[in-house]
Amino acid sequence: MSIVESPISSDPSVMGGAVVFHGTRVPVQTLLDYLDDGFSIETFIEFFPSVRREDAEQFLRLVGRRDS
What we know:
single chain; two-stranded antiparallel sheet; globular; DUF433; Homeodomain-like_sf; DUF433 domain-containing protein
């Protein structure tokens, strides 16, 4: 069994406690908004290079979403 680090975190001192991608100040909701607006995960990563693609993909799997 392996331990997988969570791709997300929440800290009251970072973005007011919003759920963000671990090690960044990018809210996970931003990725969901991009996908809902028809943008691809590639576009999101271009605009938010501090987010690792692997973390974005893992988050989407956790919430049951596919990248568009």
